TrEMBL record:
Protein name per Swiss-Prot or TrEMBL: ER-bound oxygenase mpaB/mpaB'/Rubber oxygenase catalytic domain-containing protein
Superkingdom of source: Bacteria
PANTHER family with a match to the protein in the record: ER-BOUND OXYGENASE MPAB_MPAB'_RUBBER OXYGENASE CATALYTIC DOMAIN-CONTAINING PROTEIN, PTHR36124
Length: 91
């Protein structure tokens, strides 16, 4: 349960403060430090990114008060986590 809670709280906290703020960057640094001990591949990070963010974009576009513009989608996938080769589209 703690892992699930942390999985939900870290991104919330980072976005609450803003990814460019000192607090938001500190949250991302802490998350990166936690994951640095596991040797997670870039491909695995891309899989998680897709699961967490692409699904969120699809949900917002389907049920939000308006679809997200391209700049908003780019802002959501900007993670500062060192993930490389993020696809421009889901296809």
């Amino acid at each position: 349960m703690k892992r699930y809670d942390d999985t939900m709280l870290f991104p919330f906290d980072a976005h609450r403060h803003g990814l460019e703020s000192g607090e938001g960057r500190a949250t991302i640094r802490k998350l990166n430090k936690i994951h640095s001990h596991y040797g997670i591949s870039n491909q695995d990070y891309l899989h998680i990114l897709a699961g967490h963010l692409v699904c969120a974009v699809d949900w917002i576009n389907a049920y939000g008060w308006r679809p997200l513009c391209d700049n908003e989608v780019r802002a959501l996938v900007l993670t500062h986590m060192g993930i490389k080769d993020i696809p421009k589209t889901s296809s």
